[in-house]
Amino acid sequence: MSATPATADTLIHPEWIVPVVPSGTVLENYSIALDGGRISALLPRERAGEIAAESVLELPGHAVMPGLVNAHGHAAMSLLRGFADDLPLMPWLEDHIWPAEQAHVSPEFVRDGVELAIAEMIRAGTTTFSDMYFFPDVCAHTAEKLGMRCQITFPIFDFPTVWARDAEEYISKGLALRDDVKHSDLVTVGFGPHAPYTVSEPSLVKVATLSAELDAAIHIHLHETAGEVLQAVELNGERPLDTLNRLGLLGPRTQCVHMTDLGDQDIALLARTGTHVVHCPQSNMKLASGACPVGKLLERGVNVALGTDSAASNNDLNLFGELQAAALLAKLTASDATAVNAAQALAMATINGARALGLDDNIGSLEVGKQADLIAIDLSQPETQPVYHPLSLLAYACNGSQVAYSWVAGELLMAQRRLTRVDLDSLNARIRRWRHRIEQGAK
Ligand SMILES: [Zn+2]
């Protein structure tokens, strides 16, 4: 038990605190103190009077919980929200998304798209996001400027795109970015080989070696559809997960995104190697990609985090929607209403995401000493009344618009739903210009 600090930057008195760790806990009439960007106390309200705080926030009717961790996305693609819908993955990518990207993606596209994504994510409770996209340096700097925490996994392909020519150049540019931001408190950088069907084996081996040397994350799309798995078996005689295992890519630094086509052997391999799974239920449903067996993975001890994927395939970046979809889809696919309960769904959106990104010592739960990344949710409105079980409301009734306050590293990024670092008028004007340009280009 830590001693009560005498002073704090901020002292918050909400009605409920959901720390996520220990699992399923709801604290009533507790207060939380933030100091120097970290959580300095979590204590019964009657003892909080001992702390002299610069700013005191009374939040009756609010629940405070860790900020959500969006463990997979392509933030800048927010500019392509609703650009092409109702198509299967490959025609959607090959006939619509990749040509539009080839024509329009630039540092300015990424800057504005990332700013739009961050504004949307803060308003729906996300405080950390993972990103894989071109011009990752622009994403990193935009996130820092707006005070948002993120994991950048720089893209790697074996063919040229707007950002680099070949795997070697993607990797060298990405590692230069990693050096550039190595002192950042908010940004971490890892490897983002796009998928086994777009990156060759020698390049994947290079990624495995460098990741081990540098202790850096690997983030890869894997088993997104049954078709991808089947094609790999026809081409290489093995499933993509087995290919990654053979090449030395599986392990606790690796985050595999989607994972829809998994048998018991695959699940055992993930559990044995400590590889993380990032589940993107809404993107998988919208592209009819398939379903990740979340209930089974959790049962076998595999860490499952959640991601929105991009706004071009979702079509939003709302992690509350995602955790709800994850719980419902898990129940439906397992024909078991007890599969993935409210506490598990909230854990997937917070501490499991932090664990996947290698940040669980610092974020993902409300514990003294961790970074002050938290949100306050107003449960006093009709959509979230009455409050029998705060965990149930947060998992099944909250749609993100009840998030009233957001802090990252103790910095207030939203207060009473007003963003403190984003000028929405200027942003909206830029977004309208992009829509006009992209629409002209598509004709
Ligand atoms: Zn993706």
- What is the overall silhouette? globular
**Secondary structure category:** alpha/beta
Work out the radius of gyration: 21 Å
The hetero molecules present are: zinc ion
The number of E-state strands comes to 17
Question: Could you explain the architecture of this structure?
Answer:
The chain is 39% helix and 23% strand. The strands form three sheets. Strands 1, 2, 3, 4, 5, 14, 15, 16 and 17 form a nine-stranded mixed beta sheet that branches. It has a four-stranded parallel beta sheet with strand order 6-7-8-9. It is α/β, with parallel strands linked by helices and 443 residues long. Bound molecules: zinc ion (ZN).
Q: In brief, what are we looking at here?
A:
The chain is globular. The chain is α/β, with parallel strands linked by helices. The longest helix is centred in the last third of the chain and has 19 residues, at 424-442.
